[in-house]
Structure prediction request, 484 residues.
Amino acid sequence: MKEPMDRRSFLRIAGMSLGIGVIYEFAPFLARRAEAGAITDFFKRVNGEAPASFTFAQFSDPHVGFQGPPDPLGTKAFETAVELINKNGQRPDFVLFTGDLTHDAESRDVHSQRMQLFKSIAGRINTSGLYTVPGENDAALDGGVLYREHFGESHYSFDHKGVHFVALDNVSRGRPEVGPEQLAWLKADVARYPKTAPIVVFTHRPLFDLKPEWEWFTADGDDVMKVLAPYENVTVLYGHIHRHHFQQNGKVKHYAARSLIFAFNDPATNEDKKPLPFNKDDPFKELGIRTVSDGGDRAVLAMNDVVLTRTEFSGLSGMQQMIKGSNSTGGGSSNDAD
Amino acid sequence: MTLTNKLLLFGLLTGLAAYSMPNHTRADENAQVVKITASKFHFTPDHITLVKGQPVTLQLTSTDATHGFLIRALKIDTDIKPGTVTEMTVTPATAGTFKAICDHYCGLGHSGMKLTVVVKETVAKTSSAKVAGASNPYRGKQRANS
Prediction:
């Protein structure tokens, strides 16, 4: 599948085959742009950091603590993704986690243990930074209190080598929404940047109506998009839907990452949302990757889905090894993972 | 007791009975009343039938936590808080089968909270003016549980 890419974009998004997860490469083509000097000057002035190429990875929905029929392997996919990214030659500058870091738990102590286990596994990634946003499993029941104790604020922003990153929390209010306070903060945050500045928003739920009856939406997503509408280079990375999805609304490109626990079925062909059944012969099926490259032409962005084959874990004996070695924290789990 | 008082008492009792019955038309507002209770992790009833073009008053209550009630096709999106009756009147403008979901996260099992809404065509053809008037059907309010 090829997605058209605006030739005027500052960013080239290039992906690498990691097995699980997504890695992005940002290459600003500033030298070719008349206003490039202004952007470079802006970022140098603001944080002393000029635009430069870099890579980062996105992991999503590991649901640490979940262990049930759709995925009896618990944290195995998450841990495998960490191993793969560490083996990869290209060390990401940082990793973004787009929510549902943990599976919800009735007990606060159990939930806290799951957050600790998440941090323990994520901490093994060979990178300089880990940035998270909450999913509803992490923060919707207590308004994000426990999440903030473990991970800090649930919305924030930072700059990295000429790109402005914005973490948005669209779960902590219980409802799928960002809320007026965060919207006001977002407006003030991006107002500091030129309209041509590259902006990456990362959040848990889709910021548009992907499938409202499956709760795949953000009620005030349109308000977020109105704030971002004047900006020419906006990319949104999100999770929640446990499957690959790309959609461009206006100038904004929305990319969903696969989960690290199990996949959901296709909303286009199913009335009800259900996890895909576990396949012991292909345990990471649909947890695989999306690779993104420039397709040899900088004007065209090529999106390729790659089905991962983890040969070392395929077959029954491999499965038994995995089940034996898989992690679980706390009490029982529910199949209700979204 | 005079005849007038007897008639007044009869009228009062009849009115109270009509108000408390689910799926009952309220003569004063010409709106069918449907009571829906939300609990972890289901709606009761889990299936309601409405008629296109006929107003219906939904009275939503929760027995435990805050739940949500979303039917995007009918432009309904509200929270249901325990201790209050969330009431709204809508006029379905489109026939069909729709899903209501809880869109306020309420714990494990949350995504299983669904209610099916069937909107049937009216028996008598509704006038175009009435259908057009139903295009903006939502009005909502909350009141304390008495």
